[in-house]
Specification:
Length: 149
């Protein structure tokens, strides 16, 4: 079993879309795949250096997290540009095997190596918040401030 962690190239976005659909119980459509590739190319990769980061096993994506870079300063006592780690998804058949934890630990290491010192891991799921903490983020950095409908 060959496992690797890396930034997701555009040609692998259909695998990311498939995981999202499986986790959220959405139908996988060709239109959805095309739209996902368009969004990734036009709004993620071309914007500010943001990307999706994935765990591949035997060249198949089994887990993914979106790395959203923000070049403005965070409106608190932090003076550095910041990164949001969001939308962590692991293929349903691969959950509860430590892939999410490995993915986040590797993503945190990567964004630190890119010079980011303030990293926000957002998830409304307590287990995911624990994983963010295990990766070195504080409780303050792991809360999900989004309002759910």
């Amino acid at each position: 079993m060959k496992k690797e962690f890396k930034k997701v190239p555009l040609e692998d976005i259909p695998m990311v879309y498939k995981i999202y659909c499986e986790v959220e119980n959405f139908e996988i459509t060709q239109e959805g795949i095309s739209r996902a590739k368009e969004i990734y190319q036009n709004h993620i990769l071309s914007s500010n250096g943001s990307y999706s980061y994935a765990c591949y096993i035997n060249d198949v994506i089994v887990g993914v997290v979106n790395v959203y870079k923000n070049w403005q300063m965070y409106p608190t006592d932090h003076d550095d540009p910041f990164v949001h780690l969001e939308c962590v998804m692991v293929s349903p058949t691969m959950q509860n095997q430590g892939i999410g934890k490995e993915l986040i630990i590797n993503a945190v290491e990567l964004v630190k190596s890119e010079g980011y010192t303030y990293i926000i891991g957002q998830s409304p799921v307590a287990a995911m918040q624990k994983i963010f903490e295990d990766a070195g983020l504080t409780e303050r950095d792991c809360l999900d401030f989004r309002k759910n409908k």
